[in-house]
């Protein structure tokens, strides 16, 4: 970056520790917003209009806001996904975008597996029965779950997170692994015996379909009514990717009529999920509030990588993980 505009000015939003804010403050004047709300939005926009760097989780930024931020050079998002950011407009302006891959891979795969376990074994539904005092006799067939071990696990999008889910399935639970990917993954095939299939064949063969693709124009409603119809009625759908990868009304319809058996969902078309969504009231749905990477350790590591990216981009040798360098 150029040397002309020191000191750097940075706007930071959410999820940064005091130590991380101190690191930023060593190279920049930092304006920190714990949250951007209707009350402080004008202050946030004023700060952004002066800023060279923007860092935070769940950043709300659109093309119009970029126009009002003429000095902005770097956006460092505390997330691996960046579908919420206007990348094309940033590219036109030459604004660098950094994200936080790798550090959340294993934790997000853990979340996928938690959802797999919970949906197969009906953990939430049955634990709620205990909590509600409804455990009066031994559990009968109507409350039996479905095995996890040995079931065929279909991974839609075998990138870093998909591969980590596949490892858990194959090595921990003896699951045959199917996957889709733009190109074959020889390491997954050699180490796990994974088989690459076209999406339609994967949907038809899998007992559990796990979505771990980035959200973009190509993956919008990738799982629509036709895709759901290809799944086994006994199958479960797990989504730790983005809500809009699935046509949510079509999923609700499939779950309601038994087109598929269950769903474990960490992401939704609109977040937070409205309490009145049918998904919140279905026993065969386990819904979690977008917690894929939400552990103390991983959120700390993500925030640190985002800080390192921003400091590296503005005042150092460059970012560690940039999207559009
Ligand atoms: C990510 O990092 O993209 C997670 O989904 C959190 O938004």
UniProtKB/TrEMBL annotation:
Keywords per UniProt: NAD, Oxidoreductase
Full protein name: Phosphogluconate 2-dehydrogenase
InterPro entries: D-isomer_2-hydroxyacid_DH (IPR050223), D-isomer_2_OHA_DH_cat_dom (IPR006139), D-isomer_DH_NAD-bd (IPR006140), NAD(P)-bd_dom_sf (IPR036291)
CDD domains hit by this protein: GDH
Alphabetized GO MF terms: glyoxylate reductase (NADPH) activity; hydroxypyruvate reductase [NAD(P)H] activity; NAD binding
A Gene Ontology cellular-component term: cytosol
Family recorded in the similarity comment: Belongs to the D-isomer specific 2-hydroxyacid dehydrogenase family.
One Pfam match: 2-Hacid_dh_C
Domain D-isomer specific 2-hydroxyacid dehydrogenase NAD-binding intervals: 113-292
Annotated organism of origin: Halomonas daqiaonensis
All residue ranges annotated as the D-isomer specific 2-hydroxyacid dehydrogenase catalytic domain in the record: 11-324
């Amino acid at each position: 970056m150029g040397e002309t505009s020191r000191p750097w000015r940075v706007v930071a939003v959410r999820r940064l520790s005091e130590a991380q804010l101190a690191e930023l403050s060593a190279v920049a004047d930092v304006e920190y917003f714990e949250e951007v709300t209707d009350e402080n939005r004008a202050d946030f926009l004023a700060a952004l209009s002066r800023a060279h760097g923007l860092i935070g989780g769940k950043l709300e930024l659109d093309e119009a806001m970029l126009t009002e931020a003429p000095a902005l050079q770097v956006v460092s998002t505390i997330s691996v996904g960046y579908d919420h950011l206007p990348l094309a407009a940033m590219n036109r302006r030459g604004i660098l975008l950094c994200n936080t891959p790798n550090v959340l891979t294993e934790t997000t795969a853990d979340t996928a597996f938690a959802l797999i376990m919970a949906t197969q074994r009906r953990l939430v539904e049955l634990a709620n029965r205990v909590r509600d005092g409804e455990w009066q006799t031994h559990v009968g067939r109507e409350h039996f779950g479905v095995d996890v071990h040995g079931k065929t696990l279909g991974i839609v999008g075998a990138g870093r997170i998909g591969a980590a889910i596949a490892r858990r399935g194959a090595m921990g639970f003896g699951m045959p692994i199917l996957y889709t990917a733009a190109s074959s993954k020889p390491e997954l095939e050699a180490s796990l015996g994974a088989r690459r299939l076209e999406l339609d064949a994967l949907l038809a063969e899998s007992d559990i379909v796990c979505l771990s693709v980035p959200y973009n124009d190509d993956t919008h409603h990738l799982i629509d009514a036709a895709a759901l119809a290809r799944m086994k009625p006994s199958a479960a759908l797990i989504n730790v990717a983005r809500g809009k990868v699935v046509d949510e009304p079509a999923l609700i319809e499939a779950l309601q009529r038994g087109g598929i058996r269950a769903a474990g969902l960490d992401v939704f078309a609109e977040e937070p999920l409205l309490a009145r969504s049918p998904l919140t009231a279905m026993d065969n749905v386990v819904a979690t509030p977008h917690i894929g990477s939400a552990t103390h350790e991983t959120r700390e590591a993500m925030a640190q990588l985002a800080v390192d990216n921003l400091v590296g981009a503005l005042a150092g040798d460059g970012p560690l993980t940039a999207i559009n360098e």
